[in-house]
Write a structure and sequence with these properties.
By secondary structure, the chain is mostly helical. It has helices at residues 3-6, 17-59, 62-66, 73-84, 87-100, 118-131, 133-143. The chain has one domain. The chain is 72% helix and 0% strand. It starts with a helix and ends with a helix.
Length: 144
């Protein structure tokens, strides 16, 4: 038996070009849909976390209750990322802040315990939920 008789190869002259085109469109739509889903999840993660931090800190007045005050947009984004990332991410953020503004570590703040109210309880629970996010992800990976 000749070695070339056992090899199978399609006869490309008999394939309908419309089916080939439709198959390519289907695969392209699958890839494009997956990319859009990933982009939507990244955008949601970047918008939802800072929204909840803003809600608890500025709207529910937790910042004013502990004596710090309201935070601006980039401070909220940085604080949210700091809460959500793991230890190595927190170290990198602290190093960046130290390089950009070393005098920030010399500043003082007089903090106080917030007045016990339902509004502050909800604000603390929102921040605790944000801070527990990386731990929940790690636990899910271990059990899966």
């Amino acid at each position: 038996m000749d070695a070339h008789t056992d090899d199978w190869s399609p006869d490309w002259t008999k394939i309908n070009p419309g089916c080939l085109f439709a198959g390519g469109l289907g695969f392209g739509a699958l890839v494009a849909g997956g990319a859009m889903f990933f982009a939507a999840m990244v955008a949601a993660a970047l918008l939802i976390g800072p929204f909840f931090f803003w809600l608890s800190w500025n709207v529910l007045d937790l910042g004013a209750a502990v004596g710090i005050g309201e935070l601006g947009f980039w401070a909220i984004v940085l604080a949210t990322v700091f809460l959500v990332v793991d230890w190595s991410g927190k170290t990198i953020i602290a190093a960046i802040v130290m390089l950009v503004d070393p005098n920030w570590y010399q500043a003082e703040a007089t903090l106080q315990w917030p007045e016990p109210s339902f509004k502050h309880f909800i604000a603390v629970m929102i921040l605790a939920g944000l801070a527990s996010f990386p731990h929940a992800q790690r636990k899910r990976e271990v059990t899966a």
